Structures are given as C-alpha cells and as structure tokens.
Amino acid sequence: MILESKKTTLAFRCPLCGQSILSGVNLFRISGDLLRLRCPDCDTALTLNKTNDGKFRLSVPCMFCPKPHNYLLSEGTLFKEGLFTLPCALSGMDVLYIGKEEQVKRALEESDKLLDSMLDEEEKEQLTALHRKGGEEEGYDPAVEHVMRFLLCELEDEKKISCFCDGKEEIPLYDFQVLSERVRVFCHCCNAETYLPLRSEADAEDIVKIDALELK
Ligand SMILES: [Zn+2]
Ligand SMILES: [Zn+2]
Ligand SMILES: [Zn+2]
Fold first, then answer.
1. What is the CB-side half-sphere exposure of residue 136 using CA atoms within 13 A?
2. Would you kindly state where each structural domain of the chain is located, as residue ranges?
3. How far is the CA of 93 from the centre of ligand 2 (A)?
4. What is the pLDDT of residue 133?
5. Which of 27, 35, 107, 158 could join 48 in a cystine, given CB atoms 3.0 to 4.6 angstroms apart?
6. CA 62 / ligand 1 centre spacing (Å)
7. Burial class of residue 73, CB neighbours in 10 A (0-12, 13-18, 19+)
8. pTM for the predicted model, two decimal places
9. pLDDT given at position 135
10. What's the confidence (pLDDT) of residue 138?
11. How far apart are CA 59 and CA 69, in angstroms?
12. Distance (Å) from CA 165 to ligand 3 centroid
C-alpha cells in the first residue's frame, strides 16, 4: 500500500519588503524539526514546529504589527482541502495562507489588490520602517517576548490554558501582545483574554512562575 504523503502550501507576506513568501510543505518534513520559511531578501521567517500532542505551532510575521503572530493548528486544519487563512487580530488582514498552491496564489493576489487600495506608497514605507526599527523601540525587551513564547508553549502543551473554546469544537489559537506595562494574552478564536502586569523585573519573574492561565 502506498501512503499518500500529505502536502500543503504555506504563505506569508514579508513585513520588510512586502513580497509574499510561498512554500510547499510536506507532513514528513515537519516531523520533529522546526521548519522555517525565509524571505530570500530579508531575514524574516515563518516558523512551524510540531508540539508534543501532534499540533502545529506557527509564528507568522505581520506587516501591521511589530511582533509575529502565534497560531496553533491541528494536522486536520493544516492539511485540509481548500483555502484556509488566518488574520491579524489588530488589522484584520490575513497574514497566513494555507491550501493548494493555486488557491494560495490567488488569495495573495487578492490581498495585493486590497493592500494597494488601502495604503499609498508613503504608508507602506511607514509600515516597513516600523519593522526595520524593530527592537529599538523604547521599553521593548526581547527577553520578555522570548519568555512569553516559551511559557505559552509550555502551558498549551500541558493543557493549562482555558478559554471559551473549552468543550466546544473550536481549536483555540493563543497569542500575546507585549504592551507598555502589561502583557495581553488572548485567544484568536473566542477573543477571551487576560492581562499580566509587567512593570518591573519582579513582574517578569512572576510571569515565569505562572502555572495556569484562565482567559475570559
Ligand atoms: Zn523580505
Ligand atoms: Zn498583526
Ligand atoms: Zn478560545
């Protein structure tokens, strides 16, 4: 018996140069390792890795936000028939495209048109400048982002995050935003959220010790 290998196409838009990065992904290529789709001209990348419970965690760069968005998808969603897109919670624009190559290309063309109608050259330039500055923003601490990403992965793997998706068919998609004096943790799927204080190093240390999160 020949097992048909599961394939899909993933795409995102590079926030630095604006071009769409598209790549075929084979299920067997993802087993275990971290998969990175890089923009050939910039150093931005979408990353995908498999969690202990067989889901897929994606970190996707976004044109409108300084930080990438995190999504957690089941194998069924990643390799299902038809086009599947995920939006940025802030701008409403799709940032991640999954599906057959043709469908993904068509969706990207649509999004090109939409972007062109929304933004003029000057506004596009301002958006890419936001990403070039990146880590130099005042009060920005990349360590916090790293810790949050790690913490969310841990809690998710251990099923210690709850939201309105619990007990429903929905697959929760957890993400976070580092704000000026706090971190917002939220679920893309049901919009449940919670805020963690982040005013001092002591707060950051407390965040590391969190062992469960209830979003509401
Ligand atoms: Zn680029
Ligand atoms: Zn965004
Ligand atoms: Zn939820």
1. 5
2. 7-133, 142-214
3. 8
4. 59
5. 35
6. 12
7. buried
8. 0.61
9. 45
10. 43
11. 6
12. 4
Give residue 196's pLDDT. 92
**15 phi and psi angles, rounded to 5 deg:** -70, -15
**pLDDT reported for residue 22:** 93
CA of 58 to the centre of ligand 3 (A): 17
Q: CB neighbours of 87 closer than 8 A, spacing ≥ 6?
A: 93, 94, 95
Q: Tell me the C-alpha distance between 120 and 9, whole Å.
A: 29
User: Helical H runs in the chain?
Assistant: 27-30, 75-78, 101-118, 121-133, 142-157, 201-209
CB-based contact 142:135 (threshold 8 Å): yes
* Whole-number pLDDT of residue 214: 96
Task: Tell me which residues have their CB within 5 A of the ion that is ligand 2.
Answer: 62, 64-65, 88, 90
Q: Residues whose CB is under 5 A from ligand 1 (ion)?
A: 14, 16-17, 39, 41-42
